[in-house]
Amino acid sequence: EFVIDTNGQGPIIGQQGTKIWAIKSNLMYPNGDSVYFPFIVKLIELYTPKDMIYYKMSNVASNVPLTTAGIVRIQAFKNGQELLLRPGKTWTIEMPAQQKLPNMKIYYGSNQSGNINWDPNPPGNFDTTSYGYLGLITKLGWISNSKQTIQNPTNVIVSFTSTTDNLQNVATYIYMQDLKSLIKVYNQTTNIFPTGEKAKVILIGTRQQQLYHYYWQGIINQNTSFPVTMTVISDANLTAILDTL
Q1: Using the 8-state DSSP alphabet, how is residue 41 labeled?
Q2: Closest Cα to residue 11, out of 85, 91, 82?
Q3: CA-wise closest residue to 109 among 147, 76, 73
Q4: Radius of gyration over alpha carbons of the chain, in Å?
Q5: Distance from C-alpha of 137 to C-alpha of 89, rounded to nearest angstrom
Q6: CA-to-CA distance for 142 and 198, rounded, in angstroms?
Q7: Which of 50, 98, 184, 204 has the fewest other C-beta atoms within 10 Å?
Q8: Dist. CA 138–CA 124, nearest whole Å
Q9: What is each CA distance from 160 to 49, 140, 198, 238, in whole angstroms?
Q10: Of the candidates 126, 124, 71, which has an alpha carbon nearest to the alpha carbon of residue 100?
């Protein structure tokens, strides 16, 4: 969280390296009124599969898995009122990366029933720099640095069943390390997994304040149903698994 109280050269820099050039004159109240100093910028940075899983995030737009180099949420507030970018105005952001991928696009996310849905038609692009990715955002909120890597994929159905555990409230994810894409599985089944991809499957649940998990890795090249038995795991060991995704 940053308090912006004067004009400056910028940028403000997040804990994980996101740079934001927060231009006051490009902001407005929802009714169009101008914004005066000070105002607050709030930033969330999700650069790893672990961070995205802990934030219950997904890298999918219109049922197509996306290759993703990072997700951020940028918001601005004045006296508790959330602010907007003026029509036709932008803020510049730069997202850090050591290895840069070409043709990355600016996806905007909207919150629908507690889930973030990504606009399937991203209007802008990220340019690569020595630091990472540079982009001009036209609205605040959820922003994903992503692209659709596989065109017209052949998908298989992946499902999860259990004779020992109730999976209804278990967080279920499939991470594809080659694609750098994370699928959040709803209702224990998904039909958007691209056949032949390497996958790391992780299920996370709690019971009586105890962590449980299920983990599998391999290639999925046909319709697959996983028979799940959740096992106890410590927070440290779960973190270690997520760090290897």
Answers
A1: E
A2: 91
A3: 73
A4: 20
A5: 9
A6: 28
A7: 98
A8: 9
A9: 21, 36, 17, 20
A10: 126
Lookup: tokens for 45? 């940075």
Pair 72, 45: CB distance under 8 Å: yes
Structure tokens at 136: 């001009």
Scan for tokens 């049922």, then name that residue: 63
Burial of residue 177 (CB within 10 Å: 0-12, 13-18, 19+) is middle
Cα 122 from Cα 141, distance rounded (Å): 14
CA 166/CA 129 separation, integer angstroms: 47
What gap in Å lies between CA 226 and CA 149, rounded to an integer? Answer: 26
Contact criterion met (CB below 8 Å) for 160 and 185: yes
Q: Amino acid identity of 214?
A: Y
Span 123-166, pLDDT tens digits: 999 999 999 999 999 999 999 999 999 988 899 999 999 999 99
* Amino acid of residue 142: W
Contact, 197 vs 155, CB < 8 A?
Answer: no
Query: What is d(CA 147, CA 179) in angstroms, rounded to the nearest whole number?
Result: 10
Which tokens is 61 given? 């737009």
Give dist(CA 183, CA 201) in Å, integer.
10
Query: What's the predicted TM-score (pTM) here?
Result: 0.96
- Size of the chain in residues: 245
